[in-house]
Design goal:
Chain B: GO terms for molecular function: ATP binding. The complex is a heterodimer. Chain A is an alpha/beta fold. Chain A is 31% helix and 20% strand. Chain B has 12 helices and 12 strands. The chains are: A alpha/beta, B alpha/beta.
Chain lengths: 366, 329
């Protein structure tokens, strides 16, 4: 049984009200989203700003209430939980946000930030909480002595480690990572990605990974769902999607990834036109205004997600007739042989060789 | 391409004097040059001095607290010793800049048309009618749909991608010789990013302007730059033609950066990481500034600052262990 089963999720926000409070316009942020996630696996939600990926992640945690649909977590129907049961559920599902500068309370020390979830869920007797805080800090590669410091004393990457530590404190089964590395520099980003991977292997965590950086998604995800204007247009195993995307929107998205290889062969599809507004999504297929393969049928009839034998699903009327997409995703050709060796040597140099695993991720504070 | 560069920076040093009397070494002995029609990528992480360098070119650093030495020669001008009046004539005219955040770099209380027309009238003069026609033309060039209508809209009515295109139209208003683009696509989605990069390439081909592209995205660098300078802690640590930088980097920091980006073709279990932190630039280390984080460090590295040495034509590295191939063969 899947850890998380989401079915037909709908969320419309009221964008405009009449003088008497009647809703005049809705933003259709999420419009019929379904997916499942197995324990210990990573599902990535990708799409452009405003496609509804962050709203989905908040609905899954019931931080906002859906208008329709169901969320089942570990066999329980999330939407029928009362306040007490909901609080118990929060112990099992946590979230990490994009901006580590905004998501930590500046007036609390790291120790207080990490003790709070333990106290809220009454997980440990107060006497043992300090011990546990030290343990979690070590788990995310920070030294326990740092617990007396305040967030402003840390760099962006370290703050994101603290946010991860806070999520881990209650031993969740699922962590939603909402653009967890977008605000970080490249070298720090790789540390956090390595850490998330390692914690997943060690603790059997499931992740919902919301991101617009597709190279990062390829690196971390097992399964990917591509969203456009509140709907999933394609979902597949990550390798299958990147090998041959089917939906025209996924094709455009993946073909546009800038790769770190000069003069890479590119069959980039540059989309013309603006992203339509979610206030007033176009009729039929919501991508038809920008789709290079549009036909009349797309303008009137909304396509359904159709799954093939290996679990690769796309919502496009023209899936079978579209040209092959096999060489569409740009190739970075991996490293040159020299660089390959240098990177390996860089990772195993005298500095890095001192520690292994998570402890080697330790960042020094002066 | 002419042989004398359009812009030449020699031994640029920038120090900031803090309120508490501390002096931050933001940029140290930077040498750069860009030829007409070429694109130089300036790469590095937050705080490495890449944006400060570009602000120095534009003459936009606060005078009271900044100490600048060295020389910036642009198109016959010595920018560091140019009167403010002349600088104002150059900026927005022959020298133009695009910033990362199109949201904050447009004035919310004027229409986009007003803002572009103002630039044209200031530098080119002529009639308002003529400037308006040119503005419509510019908006069309950056692919803004129905520019005759859009010209009278306020910035908040436009999407992020559109605003960035308006910024580019404004930068191009007076046919600049040099365009500085500071993270022009960082705030944008990948589909818009592709549109903007395409646009920059088109414009470069059409106008022959030189571009300095500041970014931390190595994918973007590979795509549009001819030459790359990698900055670390205020210094250029490596400068190379774009192909060489990606196939045979000669500074350990560049190796670390290249190793830390996830690849599409190659699913590594672990990405390379660069341990430690950037040195405090109020008291820069005596030797190589990367020494404390470098896996290839030697005793000698911490003694004296390494010079930027040319290893092959056009490819220079600030590392005494270069060429790095020797370390792995």
């Amino acid at each position: 049984m899947a850890l998380l089963e989401v079915n037909g999720l709908v969320k419309h926000f009221v964008a405009e009200r009449s003088l008497f409070g009647r809703a005049l316009a809705h933003v259709k942020a999420v419009d019929g989203v379904s997916f499942t996630l197995e324990a210990g696996k990573t599902l990535a939600l990708v799409g452009e700003s405003g496609c509804g990926k962050s709203t989905v992640s908040r609905l899954v945690l019931r931080l906002i209430e859906p208008d329709a649909g169901s969320v089942r977590f570990d066999g329980r129907d999330l939407l029928s939980l009362d306040a007490d049961a909901l609080r118990r559920f929060r112990r099992e599902a946590q979230i990490i946000f994009q901006d580590p500068y905004a998501s930590l309370n500046p007036r609390m020390t790291v120790g207080q930030i990490l003790t709070e979830p333990l106290a809220l869920h009454d997980l440990l007797p107060p006497a043992q909480r300090r011990e546990r805080v030290a343990e979690i800090l070590r788990l995310v590669g920070l030294e326990p002595r740092l617990e007396r410091r305040y967030p402003h004393e840390f760099s962006g990457g370290q703050r994101q480690r603290i946010a991860i530590a806070r999520a881990l404190a209650v031993e969740p089964k699922l962590i939603i990572c909402d653009e967890p590395v977008s605000a970080l520099d490249v070298s720090i980003r790789s540390q956090i990605l390595n850490l998330l991977r390692e914690l997943q292997d060690r603790l059997g965590l499931a992740y919902i990974f919301v991101s617009h950086d597709l190279a990062v998604v390829k690196h971390i995800a097992d399964k990917v769902a591509v969203m456009n204007l509140g709907q999933i247009v394609e979902t597949a195993e990550a390798d299958a999607l990147f090998a041959a995307p089917r939906h025209p929107y996924s094709r455009a998205l993946l073909s546009a990834i800038p790769v770190p290889k000069p003069r890479a062969k590119s069959s980039r599809i540059v989309l013309q036109g603006e992203i339509p507004s979610a206030l007033n999504p176009p009729p039929g297929c919501r991508f038809h205004t920008r789709c290079p393969y549009v036909v009349d049928r797309c303008r009137s009839e909304m396509p359904q997600l159709v799954t093939d034998g290996i679990g690769h699903a796309a919502a496009c009327h023209r899936t079978p007739e579209l040209p092959s997409s096999e060489a569409l995703v740009p190739s970075d050709g991996g490293f040159s042989p020299v660089l390959e060796k240098l990177v390996a040597a860089f990772g195993s140099g005298p500095e890095a060789a001192r520690g292994g695993g998570v402890s080697s991720l330790r960042t020094d504070l002066t | 391409m002419s042989t004398s560069p359009l812009i030449e920076i020699k031994d640029l040093r920038i120090r900031f004097h803090g309120d508490d009397g501390r002096i931050t070494h933001a940029v140290d002995s930077v040498d750069l040059s860009v030829a007409n029609g070429a694109t130089l990528g300036l790469v590095g992480e937050s705080g490495c001095g890449k944006s400060v360098t570009s602000l120095a070119i534009m003459g936009l650093l606060p005078k009271q607290t900044t100490e600048i030495s060295g020389a910036i020669r642009f198109d016959g001008f010595d920018l560091l010793n140019t009167p403010d009046q002349t600088l104002r004539d150059l900026r927005g005219n022959r020298l133009a800049m695009i910033f990362q955040e199109p949201m904050t770099s447009l004035n919310p209380s004027f229409t986009i048309g007003d803002q572009i027309i103002e630039t044209i009238l200031r530098h080119r003069g002529g009639s308002r009618k003529g400037a308006r026609d040119r503005t419509v033309e510019l908006l069309r060039r950056v692919h803004i749909p129905s520019p005759e209508r859009r010209i009278d809209e306020y910035p908040h009515k436009l999407s992020g991608g559109m605003r960035q295109r308006v910024m580019i139209a404004m930068a191009l208003a007076c046919d600049p010789r040099l365009l500085i683009a500071d993270e022009p696509t960082t705030a944008l989605d990948v589909t818009l990013q592709a549109q903007i990069l395409e646009l920059m390439r088109e414009l470069k081909a059409a106008s022959g302007a030189a571009i300095i592209l500041i970014t931390h995205d190595l994918g973007v660098v590979a795509e549009v730059c001819d030459e790359v300078a990698v900055m670390y802690a205020g210094e250029i640590v490596e400068r190379a033609p774009v192909d060489e930088l990606f196939s045979a980097p000669q500074h350990p920091y560049t190796v670390g950066l290249l190793g830390s980006i996830p690849r599409l073709d190659h699913r590594a279990e672990q990405l390379a990481t660069i341990e430690g932190m950037v040195p405090n630039m109020a008291e820069p280390p005596a030797g190589c500034r990367f020494a404390a984080r470098c896996p290839f460090v030697l005793e000698a590295c911490t003694k004296a600052p390494p010079p930027l040495v040319e290893i092959s034509p056009g490819h220079a590295s600030r590392c005494i262990r270069a060429p790095l191939e020797r370390l792995v063969s």
